[in-house]
Structure formats: structure tokens, C-alpha cells
Specification:
Largest sheet of chain A: 8 strands, mixed
Number of helices of chain B: 12
Number of strands of chain A: 12
Structural class of chain B: alpha/beta
Strand content of chain A: 15-25%
Helix content of chain A: 25-40%
Oligomer: heterodimer
Radius of gyration of chain A: 21 Å
Radius of gyration of chain B: 22 Å
Order of helices and strands of chain B: EEEHEEHEHHHEHEHEEHHHHEEH
Strand order of the largest sheet of chain B: 6-7-8-3-9-10-12-11
Number of strands of chain B: 12
Shape of chain A: globular
Helix content of chain B: 25-40%
Strand order of the largest sheet of chain A: 6-7-8-3-9-10-12-11
Structural class of chain A: alpha/beta
Distance between the termini of chain A: 22 Å
Strand content of chain B: 15-25%
Chain lengths: 361, 363
Amino acid sequence: MSTVHAAKGVSSGATEVPERPFLSVENLSVKFPTEDGLVQAVDGVSLTIEQGKTLAIVGESGSGKSVTAQAIMGLIDRRTARMSGQVWLDGQELMGLPMPDLQAIRGSQIAMIFQDPMSSLHPFYRIGDQIIEAIRVHRSVSKKQARKETIDMLRRVGIPAVERRVDDFPHQLSGGMRQRVMIAMALINSPRLLIADEPTTALDVTVQAQIMELIASIQDEFKITVILITHDLGVVADVADEVAVMYGGRVVERATTAALYLKPEMPYTLGLLSSIPRMDKEMDRLDPIPGNPPSPINLPKGCVFQPRCAYWERVPDDLCKTTRPELLATVPDHMVRCHLEPEVRREISASVLSVLSGGRS
Amino acid sequence: MTDAGKEVLEVSNLRTYFPVRSRGVLPRTIGQVKAVDGVDLAVGPGETLGLVGESGSGKTTVARSVLMLVRPTSGSVKIEGQEITRLSQRDLAPVRRKAAMIFQDPYNALNPRHTVGGIISAPFKIQKIEPEGGVKRAVQTLMERVGLNPEHYNRYPNEFSGGQRQRIGIARAVALRPKLIVCDEPVSALDVSIQAQILNLLRDLQHEFGISYLFVAHDLAVVRQISHRVAVMYLGHMMETASRKVLYSQPLHPYTHSLLSAVPIPDPARQRERNRILLEGDLPSPINPPSGCVFRTRCFQAQERCAVEIPPLVEVAPGHKVACHFPIATVPKSVVTEHQAHELAPVEGVPVPPAGPDRVVPA
């Protein structure tokens, strides 16, 4: 695993100063009108990543993490969804681009891998032909050249007996192998941003370890910026530089990975950390967050987490129920969306973490 | 635990094979998937045995075979001492009063056309049991006990979230106060905050009613949280069984080592210091498993002997069994590096783990 955490950042050099970071998502909102009402899937999300870094977006089902990723990728149907906000990739705004321009960027500048490889592999076509097509859509190279590149990339992602496997159909491969094929297809045009939406959730742990190792080494080699969407706080701890925690369509906490685990401040983040069983510790009892996540059709008026929060009564005037908290810096590089006073939050956090660290290993 | 008569569940030499048939008008059996191939296990009263393994390891087939949802090919399954493999469906009915099951997918395990009340009262009706105070009252007490609102008696499953549906499944399973519940991945479809609620509930019910669990899961952290003892399966075979404490701190089988090292822990500083054993390749086909030890094709310890001789499951210390010719006895898991793992001297014969400082539990 040493390759994963060895300085992953690309040195930005002395040449300054682009106005925006490599990727900047600004005040992104996505709403879907449905029969039951307006689904507020993403509600004012802002994110930034520097080139070559890994940003993890963590959240449970319905938190809006996948919709955020799809919006960055331009995969949300603009005819049905109501979207606002901006997505800047290396100085270019993507949300306002006409479809053909966006399609040119998608697959070459930005690529995405999904939880289920079968959703991005066509079952009727040989895997090699699908990757060759991905090359020839974006670049004018001969079929022969494209096939050579395909075989090289499949070998690079660890497909055994490539010359034979390249003409296999997707169903002939195991889940881990399909995931590798999808990664090969995503990387074939050397994208600069890779969005990985739960890339290992459907895989066994030993295969997950292989795939995460592969993504990390490819990221190093090609200097790719990665957005990792996941619910697994173990995977985040393993590979992310920065973390954004999402809940109810909003980013509720953003910090460097170390700060998020050592000094989390948002009660939801604390609740998540207390909920996970630990492979490395023996704990008497888990301390789960009570209740269920809010409905995205009817989000609470104030803080989205208030109905499940144990501490909202410590804020005067029912502020948590009435007023939406903003995502504010608590210390540099650490933003929290919570009405509690910073000192109170840190006090709560310290006591929760001391209980957590009490487990026997 | 040694007194065989006291076990709630006792499985010995269980084999469940599925025939592979050729296509065509007259299908012939052309092979067999050896999903479970000679498994022994036992669950004591009030105990949880965690059964872990990756997809294709046969853990779910064990769970289903134990309750005769799949008829085993051979072997013995005893529930409270009663042999059940040869019982007819009719004779199994009283057994099902003692042993229930909780399924993975709370969306498919409940009939969408039945109300919650109907679902939870089904066991009473099928077994023709009239609880004191009537079925409805018993069901509502159960609903309350598992954290559901008893007023929702007449609602349908689609009105509930995944976590609540799993609670419905749990209420149905505990309705007749079974001695044993087989849980097949009961929390793997749930979000972490809900998963923790369900794990706590299962544990509370165990204490309250003295239920034994056979808890099948792929998530090693979940299994550590709930189990008293843990059994590790690979390709239809049992690799290692031990108490929870020993399995996580002093594993012997190379496969257990690799599994434990593959799970990232939610602690960035420690996670990035750990060294990982990366297994090569995928699970071999269970139609044509490797000769000798089934794990040898991916094992970093494998030697010639492993291809020839099937390692028996041997008790190396009280309660700790391992099936390996070359177990890794001396190095705690988080200290094993990929590099070292290859260099480890094989432990001849049957190692007894020393309790010395070199077996110190990794911090």
C-alpha cells in the first residue's frame, strides 16, 4: 500500500495563479420534479480539488453523492432535472456547454467508473471492440493502432492472457475483471479527472484491495485527479487526501482526511464514526445515529440533520429547526455546517472520540 | 462446548453439490458445483458463530442447507441433537419452530401483498400456535420490541424503509422464540447508521431470548462486532475457526491473513502504515476446484505439498482449528508485509501459538 500514500500531489510549481482550482463545483443544485413533489437531490454543493489529488465524497443512500458526481460528469438529463450552479474544470465551465461540446469532454477529459461494471459494458460486444470504439470516438487513429493501445491498457490494468481475453464478451469475465476492463476503458483516452462511483462496493474485499491498489498506481502514473464516491470510511481513510461528508443533499463537513478522522466536528460525522463496526477493535456496543435519513422531497427547514441530532437543544432559540446553517470554516481547510459553537462542537467531538478509542484491539 | 449434546446446531461433513446439466432436449449431468464440500461447524446455546467468506465461498449454501432450504448431498445437520437431513417436509415443520432465518434483501424477503401484521403473524398461523392474548397482540408486542410502531400493523412493506423492513423480517424470525436463527447477510444492504441499529437489536434479542445465531456475512468488521466465534470459508471448505479474539489477533491461515489485511480500517494514520497482502487473481471455479488445498492457487505460502495433499482441519489450540500445511503462526497480521510473507519460514506440522511477546496483539 506504500504507493498509495506516498506523496500523491502534483507539485504545482512556481507558476501561479489560476483563478480557480483544477476542479471547482460552485453552488450546485439538482432537483427532480416527480409525481410526489420536487426531489431536492443536491442542494447548494460547492467543492474544489487540486490537480492530482483524491477527494472522497462520503454519504449514505440518498445523501446526493452520486447525483453530484453525475452532474459533474454531465450525465443528468437537462430536460427533466432542474439544475443550477457551475462546474469549472481547468478554467472551463461545463454546465453551460452545449451537448456536443460536453460529449467531447466526457470520455476524454473526464471519465467515470461505476459500481456495476455491467452498466457501462455492452453485453453484446467484445470488450476489446468496446474499448477500441471509445478510442476512435475521441481520436482519429487506425483500428490496428487502437487495438494495440487497448491490449496495452488491458495488460496495464492486470487482465491475464490479454491477447485471448480482448475478444471475450463481458459475461465471460469475473466481477473483478469486468471492473478492470471498465477502468481500462475509462483511462484509455488519458482523462484528467476520474470519477469513481462506489468502484469496489460490489466486490469482495481481496478484489477490492486489488482494484484500489490499481486506481492508486494509475493515478500516480498518469497524474489523474480522482473523485471517489463511497460510503466506506475504511476506503476513504486508505486513499483520500480530502473528504466531503454529504447528508440530505448538502455538504455538511469538509476537511483533510486526517482532520476528518481525528477532529471531526459535525455531529453527523461523529455519528457515522460511532456507527461503524471496527475490524481492528472490539467494541461492546455500537452507538448508531437514531432514526432514518430525511426524505429528499421534504427536507427539514433548518439543519437537515437536526431531527436525528443529539445536540440541537444546545443551540438557543431552536435555531437548528428554523435556520439553515452555512458551511463555514472552523479552522483553515476545515469547513463545518453546524449551528453549535465551535468550542462546544470540539468538546462533544473529543468526548465521543475518547469513547470510540476505548475499544480493545 | 465439547459436550456434543449441548450444541444447538451441529453440522458435520456437510456436502451440498449442484448438478451442472448439458443443454438440449435430454439434459445429462456433466459436472457438479461443489458449493459446500465437507464442512463441520457447531453453534452452542446463546452463541453467535460468524461465518465469513467471499462470494463463491459457499457460506450462503451452508446457511440454506442447515435449514433444509437446499437439501444437502450428504452429511449431518443436527438441531438440538435431532438429525434433520432425512426428514420429510412434513416432519420438518416442528423443526422450523426451533430454527428461523433472516435474509439479506429486506425488499425481496417480504411478500408485498401482505400487511406487516400478516407477515409477522404467519409463523403462528402456519404452526397453528395461539399465543396468549391472541395473535394480533403478540404481533404488536413483537413489533414494538424490534422498534416498529405497532400502529403500522396494517401497512404494507413498500411503506417502510430498508432498515424497517429488516426489522419486520427480524420480528417474523423471533416470533416463535426459536433456539437458532440463521442470518444470511442481514445488514449488508443497509446504510452504516441503520446497520448499527440492526446489529444492536440482534444482540439485545439474543440476550433477552437466549437465541443462537449462525451469522453469515462477508464484512469482517460486522462479524467481529456480533460473533463469539468465527469460521472462515473458501471455495466450499472451512479454512479456519477460532474465537473472535484469537481469529482477529492471531490468525494462522494465510487466507485469513489476507482477508484481514485487505479490509481498510477507518483510521488514516494506521491504515496507511499497514502492509497489505494482495492476493493474485480470482476464486477458481467450484466445478473444477484445485487439487489439494483449494486456496493454493492464490496462496503466497503454497508449496508442492499443497497441490497433492488436502490439509485437514486440525485443532491446534483449544477452540482454534486450521486447515493448512504451512500456517503463519509467528507474525501478527499487521506486521506481515508482502515481502516478509514470502520469506516466512513455514511452520512444520501443527503449531501451537506461543503466548510470548511476539504474539502481541497489534495495537
